[in-house]
Design brief:
five-stranded antiparallel beta sheet, four-stranded antiparallel beta sheet, rod-shaped, Immunoglobulin-like, 3 helices
């Protein structure tokens, strides 16, 4: 049963009990119906309160940047490690993961990180299972012919890891300033 249907069912039950409690003239029946109404309302408040609390615990994270760097002939790379603990009872994810470079408070460059091991695929989503720690070794990669982008990264006075939660709120954390290796 979906949360919306459950909520609709509880609201319907409360309305039916309220109408019955008002329309029954016998006070001996009105008291148990009113008691039932209070019980249903209290149960609904408890149910949705627990639902909200289980899903609102903040994520715990640690980001180590820049753990490895390489200013090679072909490419310029910087690696960083992201560790995130999801203490919630429900899994979640971080979408649209990117590293954003700012200069004088203005966004100058935004890049999607890659996995730094294996096939080095772009990583736009980090799945966060319930009550588990997830670690990702990520990499920012600049081909040697993107000199303007490399300069924007090196001249940035602020660097952030930015992502979106499924509900649309923003996850962000400052990273160390990018310096030439």
């Amino acid at each position: 049963m979906t949360r919306g249907r459950l909520m609709l069912g509880i609201v319907g039950l409360v309305l039916i009990l309220a109408v019955v409690a008002i329309l029954i003239p016998d006070p001996r029946l009105r008291v148990p119906i009113t008691g039932g109404l209070i019980g249903v309302v209290a149960s609904a408040i408890t149910l949705f309160g627990q639902y909200y609390l289980r899903r609102s615990d903040p994520l715990v994270w640690q980001i180590d940047a820049w753990s490895n760097s390489n200013d090679g002939v072909l490419n310029v790379t910087r690696d960083f490690v992201v560790r995130i603990l999801n203490p919630r009872d429900a899994g979640t994810a971080l979408w649209n993961v990117r590293v954003v470079f700012y200069e004088n408070g203005k966004e100058t460059l935004s890049m999607i990180p890659r996995l730094s091991v294996g096939n080095q695929a772009l990583i736009e989503v980090i799945d966060l299972p319930s009550q588990e720690t997830v670690m990702r070794k990520l990499r920012i990669l600049f081909p040697a012919n993107e000199v303007a982008s490399i300069e924007k990264a090196e001249n940035a006075d602020r660097v952030k890891l930015v992502a979106m939660y499924p509900d649309g709120s923003v996850f962000e954390d400052d990273l160390e300033k990018w310096t030439a290796a």
